[in-house]
């Protein structure tokens, strides 16, 4: 068993939680984390702005087998379709830390790390001016706040905002939980959003880096398995699990009314 690496700013979830990626089949989920659809919702400018939870799905069986080939008729659960589906289950993601291969943009008070291999095309980074330009202008308090928000909303963890004074990153404090991403704007479903430091390992025992936020492929077509690489968007993959919840577009000014207060707190030293 390889040693578990933990990304800076993340914490490992309680021991009962884990996910095993079977080599040619489903994700095997342990610990009964909550599982629900998570819709990418827009602001008044029609940009990705927040997630809205939808239908919940039980995870009481231990393990709960979740489809990763995209072909199950019992989604989000596995029904054995991976045995006959046209997909390549090969786990191709490199065995390396996300931050080891990230670029940095520096502003006066913030830095932004960026590893594009982990982009899942959720588009939160363009909501109010893009995260890179906002970071570059982070001497301005509004730009700084929005840069932190955009980076922290990035579900796949491609982007992280770092306070230059302390050298620490900003992270939402997620409970261990799973989300089935739905992206109605582009008529596509997305990956499995894994939050709160749930460890991920292969059947071989190889462990992946523990991260506060990551997205795993559910459509079966990612070139960076087990992670989502945004391919679902180009093929308009759909799981047909839930319909769009009633919600109003929220303006940027309404942010404080729904952003969890702890969302932008600098984590304790990790
Ligand atoms: S996953 Fe992150 S980097 Fe990719 S579009 Fe979404 S917010 Fe931007
Ligand atoms: S869910 Fe397969 S690439 Fe995103």
Question: How are strands sequenced across the largest beta sheet?
Answer: 4-3-9-10-12
The largest sheet, given as strand count, sense and whether it forms a barrel, is: 5 strands, mixed
Number of strands: 12
The secondary structure category is alpha+beta
Q: Kindly give the count of domains.
A: 2
What is the averaged pLDDT score? 90
Q: Can you put this structure into words, describing what you see?
A:
It is a single chain. The protein has 270 residues and is α+β, with helices and mostly antiparallel strands. The chain has two domains: 18-94 and 175-235, no CATH class; 103-171, no CATH class. It contains four helices and twelve strands, in the order βββββββααβββββαα. It has helices at 131-136, 141-153, 231-235, 255-258, and strands at residues 18-21, 27-30, 35-42, 48-57, 64-66, 103-106, 110-114, 159-163, 177-183, 188-195, 200-202, 213-216. The strands form three sheets. A five-stranded mixed β-sheet has the order 4-3-9-10-12. 44% of the residues are buried. Residues 256-270 have low confidence and may be disordered. Bound molecules: iron/sulfur cluster and FE2/S2 (inorganic) cluster. Residues 120, 190-191, 217-219, 221-222, 228-232 line the site of FE2/S2 (inorganic) cluster. FE2/S2 (inorganic) cluster (FES) is lined by residues 120, 190-191, 217-219, 221-222, 228-232.
């Amino acid at each position: 068993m390889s040693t578990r690496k933990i990304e800076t700013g993340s914490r490992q979830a309680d021991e009962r939680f884990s996910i095993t990626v079977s080599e040619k089949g489903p994700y095997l989920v342990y610990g009964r984390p909550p599982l629900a659809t998570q819709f990418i919702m827009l602001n008044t400018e029609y940009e990705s702005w927040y997630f809205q939870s939808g239908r919940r799905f039980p995870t009481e069986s231990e393990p709960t087998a979740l489809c990763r080939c995209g072909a199950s008729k019992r989604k989000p659960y596995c029904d054995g379709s991976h045995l006959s589906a046209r997909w390549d289950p090969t786990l191709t993601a490199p065995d390396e830390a996300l931050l080891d291969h990230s670029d940095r943009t520096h502003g006066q008070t913030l830095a932004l790390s960026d590893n594009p291999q982990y982009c899942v095309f959720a588009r939160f980074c363009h909501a109010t001016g893009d995260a890179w330009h906002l970071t570059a202008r982070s001497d301005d308090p509004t730009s700084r706040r929005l840069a932190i928000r955009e980076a922290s909303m990035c579900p796949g963890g491609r982007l992280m905002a770092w306070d230059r004074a302390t050298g620490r990153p900003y992270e939402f404090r997620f409970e261990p939980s799973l989300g089935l991403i739905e992206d109605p704007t582009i008529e596509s479903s997305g990956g499995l959003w894994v939050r709160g430091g749930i460890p991920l390992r292969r059947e071989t025992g190889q462990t992946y880096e523990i991260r506060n936020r990551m997205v795993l492929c559910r459509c079966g077509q990612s070139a960076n398995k087990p992670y989502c690489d945004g391919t679902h968007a180009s093929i308009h993959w759909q799981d047909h699990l839930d319909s769009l919840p009633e919600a109003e577009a929220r303006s940027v000014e309404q942010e404080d009314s729904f952003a969890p207060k702890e969302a932008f707190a600098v984590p304790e030293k990790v």
